[in-house]
Known about the structure:
By secondary structure, this protein is of the alpha/beta class. The chain has four helices and 31 strands. The protein has helices at residues 13-80, 93-102, 105-111, 261-268; strands spanning 117-119, 122-125, 133-136, 141-149, 156-165, 172-184, 194-196, 199-209, 219-221, 229-236, 240-242, 248-255, 269-271, 279-280, 291-292, 299-305, 316-318, 322-330, 334-338, 341-350, 359-363, 366-369, 387-398, 404-407, 409-417, 422-426, 430-432, 437-448, 461-462, 465-469, 475-477. 19% of the residues lie in helices and 38% in strands.
Amino acid sequence: MYKGTYTDITATPQAHHARSLRCGITSVIAMIFMVLIACLALGFYATMTTSTKLSQNDQKGARALVAAESGIRYMRLQLARIKLAPLTTSDQVPSALWTALKANTDLVGNLGTNTVGFANNTITIPAEANQMIATDNSDQSGFVVTISRISTTADGIVVKVTGYSGTGRVRRTKTVKLNFIRQEYPSTLFQNAVAAQGKITIQKGLIGGSGVPDTIATMMTTRTTNPAFLMSGGTLGGDIGIVKAGTASVTAGSVHGTTNLTTIYNTYVKLVQAPEFPAFDTSVFAPYATNTYVSGMTTLTNTRIPANTGTAASPLTFTGGATVQGILYIESPNVVKFGGSANIAGMIIFENKGTSADNSLTFTGNAQMNPLPAGAAFDPLRSITGISILAPTASVTTTGSTDSYLKGNMIVGNFNELGSATIKMESGSIIAMDTANAVTFNGKDTRFVSTGVLNPPSMGVKFSTKFVPKDGTYGEVH
């Protein structure tokens, strides 16, 4: 059996030293972990702080965008209330719009002591620096508007709204834009067969439909003095529209198939809302009249008749009839008479100047409307629709004994039907601009196939305009 000596090696100095080394490493590891945890804590703190700032910035940015979009909606409302005069040109739009916005009590009421500014064809709302229309005072949210033309060639405006939120270093801004185009206010004027600003008189004759119900022949006058409508005979198929009660006088004749005056007054005389009557720019037709009238001319091809060619003492008279091809542009003043058959393969335009006391157009024979002739000389006119005779400052009279046919609207100073023949109107109304005696029917028949409601004048006849948003133009400006 082996007999040796037992020795406890763990009790040697080297073992004690090893244990001491292992205890030091533990402390270092603990300190490393503490440092790591501290770094993580600092990183977490920094991340949370940054996230909070970013969240605040995002919130301010969102509020600024809401303010900007609120401004766009607000301006849509304000612009929808604006009514620009009919003959306002594109370059006049900024100034005219500025004038209208300054008079807008709702807008001015939201500006407080601030104003609507205008400089370099740009409108600024409010005009004062560092001011805005407030949307939320609790976080200093609001917006500023600038309005300018889309371009020098486009008939529209661009509205830019900058929204703000916050103050100082955390203030955010967002800008959005929306384009608006001008659009004419719809008018009920051409729904009537006859519409006048002055007195309408019916003494004899039949005013009704041709192949359609006679009720198409409605009449309307905006004259407010009595009588605005005077009927002492004849037959009217449609209603009588007046804008002031008690201004229609019917003593004889038939309306809607009845001669009973009580029924006529109670049923067929109606109070209506006055439609807008247009303004005119006949100068746009002048460039098409490339030829000047000379004495003896009977075929009038894109012809201009100079002022004073015909006078009351010595009218310009086409005794054997004449043919109008394209445009006949008559300068004011002038007195022109068509005898025989007037063949109108185009349209007659009377310069919008002077009054019906200075200008007159008389058909002692008949007038027949035909399509434009073939040929390049007439191609530029083919896009012009809705006009047979445009003579807003002229007296137009028919005295013929042969039936006439007109296609398109007849817009005159005053109109007098005194002939013994039938006038047939297709796709057109009779519009009279004079405020005294505007329309007189003392002849035979005036028949309407259709009014001008679906065939309004496409050129030279202007109504008031409003601003409507243009589809596809809304967006954020970066």
